[in-house]
Amino acid sequence: MGNLFLFLLLGAVFYYIFKSYGRYTAEYSQETFKNFSVSYESLKNSDLGLFVALVAKVAKADGHVDALEAQLVGIMFDDISKVFPEPAKTKDILKQIFNEEKDRRDNTEQIAHALAEALRRNKAQQEQFMGFLIQLAFADGEVTQSEEEVLATIAEAFAFDPQKYHAIFDQFEAMMKNVRPQATLDDAYKILGVSKNDDMSTIKKAYRKLVRQYHPDIIKSQGKSEEYIKEATAKTQEINQAYEMIKKARG
């Protein structure tokens, strides 16, 4: 559901996810879904519902959904919902699917197989989805063993090219190593554009705004250079590190 996923994580859309997107943009739009009957069953069994279920499993694979993951998944729900006739209802159902699936480990392979079958004629779109899931796993800066295991299960069900998988994974890993933590708390406040006298509510709003600002959606990312996308990825990690530093300092 390419154009349904106008979310993408980390405030940054990675080159591998978007390099082949252009040919699909006309296929997915509000016009495409104007007659879609929005219900729990219809969404859960669609490409979108299956993918959201896998997103939930990767997000919770390390035992918790951290602040940045939560923000980015929220953006995902907002952007996906906009293409359906009943956005509010769609968003509620997506949240329900996410919450139901995030704590289940017994059906990951089954859901991945179902999505692979739905996309069997569209390997490029499988690559988009796999790239997104890898990017999500890196949202907190590193990938745990449990996250790697979930990703490996999904990749195997997709029959995903191992070379492509490792190329995407290695690119993200290299990028994360180049994102340096903020040296001081003053730096963190500057990154978020807030004052040390601001309350956490104000700081959280600034953080959310910046995450969305540096999260170019799929449409906006078309035609952007690989370097631009890498810079956006690094900037989002910088924003997240600054926010986490301030939260820790304030207890």
TrEMBL record:
<dbReference type="GO" id="GO:0051787">
    <property type="term" value="F:misfolded protein binding"/>
</dbReference>
<dbReference type="GO" id="GO:0034975">
    <property type="term" value="P:protein folding in endoplasmic reticulum"/>
</dbReference>
<dbReference type="GO" id="GO:0051087">
    <property type="term" value="F:protein-folding chaperone binding"/>
</dbReference>
<feature type="domain" description="J">
    <location>
        <begin position="187"/>
        <end position="251"/>
    </location>
</feature>
<keyword id="KW-0256">Endoplasmic reticulum</keyword>
<keyword id="KW-0732">Signal</keyword>
<dbReference type="InterPro" id="IPR036869">
    <property type="entry name" value="J_dom_sf"/>
</dbReference>
<protein>
    <submittedName>
        <fullName>Molecular chaperone DjlA</fullName>
    </submittedName>
</protein>
<dbReference type="Pfam" id="PF05099">
    <property type="entry name" value="TerB"/>
</dbReference>
<dbReference type="InterPro" id="IPR029024">
    <property type="entry name" value="TerB-like"/>
</dbReference>
<dbReference type="Pfam" id="PF00226">
    <property type="entry name" value="DnaJ"/>
</dbReference>
<dbReference type="InterPro" id="IPR001623">
    <property type="entry name" value="DnaJ_domain"/>
</dbReference>
<dbReference type="InterPro" id="IPR007791">
    <property type="entry name" value="DjlA_N"/>
</dbReference>
<dbReference type="InterPro" id="IPR051727">
    <property type="entry name" value="DnaJ_C3_Co-chaperones"/>
</dbReference>
